[in-house]
Amino acid sequence: MSADPGLREAWEKIPTPGEVGQELERFAGRRMERIITIVVGVGALALGTQALVNALVKMSVIDFPHLLMMSVVFVPWLVMLVCCVLGRGVRVAAGVFFVAYLVDLLLWPFVAGRGPMVIPTDQPWIFFLVNVAGVAAVVAFPFGVQVGWALVGPFIYGAVRLVQGGFRDEFWSVTAFDVSFTLILGLVLVALGWMFRSVANGVDDARGRAVALYTEAASAEAAEHERVAVAALMHDSVLAALIAAERAGTQRERALAVEMAREALTRLANAEAPAQEGSDEPVQIELIAEDLRSAVTQLGVPIEIEHFGHGAVPDRIARAMALAARQAIGNAVSHASARGLAVVVEGHGDTGLTIRVSDTGGGFDPSQVGADRLGIRASILARMAAVGGVATIDSDRHGTVVTLGWSQT
Question: Which of 210, 238, 255 is the last residue of a domain?
Fold first, then answer.
């Protein structure tokens, strides 16, 4: 049975690999980067504000070198926060802040002063920015740089503090605590960023594989559908017209063969037109019965088409069922000499349609029909399956019954 048209249309609207840019293909990755950016902005705001307040409170007099150091790091910090809010230029802004902080950190002992006046427990404001630089590295740099800063950055801060304190004994324990704290926190932040990005990349990769598999399956289905349609067309029209021409012995039979050939050429000329598949416009059951009456009249078979019920079905369904029924009628005429041929069209309101073609010929075994015989496989079974219908063939020595059914549900 073919896929539901609504589901097919929905799948076709999904961007497939190669049809869209990286921006759409990495949907989950982009969303995760935005989440990381927001979290980094919140954390940088909290720690940076704490560092700024600490710097302003401890600055008793106007110290221009110190103010210059503050401006070097806090201006990029502010720009990074704005970029995090806007979601644009975050990577560049975070990279600039990281470099500015590293410069300030290396210059700290020379600007902030050294010697016995420095108090070990009095944490400088640059301490609060160590992990802000760490999250900036998570946003701006590859994973190797992130891990490198998480491992080395705290020790750089520790070395700067020891230089500032003249390597006095009381500085070692306090600095060791600060270094261990920033080291653990920095590694946790890097690990979280790596984990969330890995999950997002996994989702994007799985989505890409799923869409690629569906695209491949849809292409295979379309090729098979086209093959079946062409085979059915060749069998229904071209081959039937050739057989009719070969067997024509009377003027009426020759006229019928000419008409069949004209119809075959018309259908071949319009084979690529989408209209051949039909539309979803409703077709009354009575029109389908009338079409089958015309078909048996052309074949010269004196039978009456029985018609029960009422309703309508989509045009594409009506076309497929009418062509399949015509093939069943043709088979009964060709192989059973139209003995006991009967055709019943039964409508089920707007929910379905059933067409029954039966004869009292010698019957046959459907499983023994060769793969190259397309009258049943392509023109009846495959055609009904292509529109979501069902075709059943019951045959024994008492005759054959071909039942074509389509239901809305």
Answer: 210
